[in-house]
Amino acid sequence: MKVPSAAISRLVTYLRILEELEQEGIMRTSSEQLGELAQVTAFQVRKDLSYFGSYGTRGVGYTVPVLKRELRHILGLNRRWGLAIVGMGRLGSALADYPGFGESFELRGFFDVDPAKVGRPVRGGVIEPVEALPQRVPGRIEIALLTVPREAAQEAADLLVAAGIKGILNFAPAVLEVPKEVAVENVDFLAGLARLSFAILNPKWREEMMG
Amino acid sequence: MKVPSAAISRLVTYLRILEELEQEGIMRTSSEQLGELAQVTAFQVRKDLSYFGSYGTRGVGYTVPVLKRELRHILGLNRRWGLAIVGMGRLGSALADYPGFGESFELRGFFDVDPAKVGRPVRGGVIEPVEALPQRVPGRIEIALLTVPREAAQEAADLLVAAGIKGILNFAPAVLEVPKEVAVENVDFLAGLARLSFAILNPKWREEMMG
């Protein structure tokens, strides 16, 4: 099975829609409804789900809580991941205060290179020096939110890799080089702006994308 | 031409790499080098570029500043886009102070629903009420950075659409419904965390993705 990367992004969207439907007390849905809310075709919804198994009943559709549970399982959100924030500047501090991580993700560490920041209390802990990463990461922290400036990103990533991190959510506008055992996702609003620029200038392309 | 959405994201990555090469004084590159730095195959690089024309010379490769200029043109970054920030909370304020938008993007407006925030000076302007959007957007602001809480996101998007916005960079973890004339890109770190969770649990899938 060669699952396209975009399919994983859509699964996350479907999950979010299912959570909203459930909150509204809606217990049944269909590939048509999910597609409309996710702005893709019903065929796309069925194809994305088909990579992982057989869901729903023909002519009946999906049971919202069941499909939600299945998607959480596929995405690995039925477990708890330990997170660290590396780089306690403005963005890192805002993330430390963010209340919406949900039950799948738990902040377990806060790190910075700046001695003036080390020791400062934050919600849920205290800022530690990056030198403490090799002691803190193993068995406790799987994912790092990397919120350092662009020019410090690769060095911080190297430290995280050496400490045994499994995944990096990279907020810096830099292309990180890491061993293939380490997963990287970029949260990069400048790249988002560039994609938006292309999308605005190419409305026909957008229409094709919508199916 | 049906250009995959992921190809556009990769073009942005190639552009970033070309900018870094140029800064290092490197004037020639190849699909092999670009691929290695972007962590895709050389074939992928050539394929992504082939959607838009014929670039480089066989056996010689690409001239860095030329390919950079071509990519900027393809992505629409050779023009100046007017931006507004809608939602001047913590994230919106951080973005207002962000120094790295570059020459393609210019902050031209700051908006909030909160009367207590309206009138407050920010770098490059003053916070205005969202009611001013219909006067401020036309002919001046093409793209909105939407940094309101999740539950306010759709209503704010509706206001922006009514004011004539062309694109929305959505930072809220919500699936926005907008007319097809309006482009939306999501900067959604929670979705990034979910994709990371999947990627960590499926290392074989990651290897396949790398080509």
UniProtKB/TrEMBL annotation, chains A, B:
This is Redox-sensing transcriptional repressor Rex. NCBIfam families: PRK05472.2-2 (NF003993), PRK05472.2-3 (NF003994), PRK05472.2-4 (NF003995), PRK05472.2-5 (NF003996). Residues 76-175 form the CoA-binding domain. It comes from Thermus filiformis. Belongs to the transcriptional regulatory Rex family. Residues 13-52 bind DNA. Modulates transcription in response to changes in cellular NADH/NAD(+) redox state. GO terms for biological process: negative regulation of DNA-templated transcription; response to redox state. Its main location: cytoplasm. One of its GO terms (molecular function) is DNA binding. Keywords: Cytoplasm, DNA-binding, NAD, Repressor, Transcription, Transcription regulation. It holds the Pfam family CoA_binding. Coiled coil: none annotated. GO terms for cellular component: cytoplasm. NAD(+) binds at residues 87-92. It is found in: Cytoplasm.
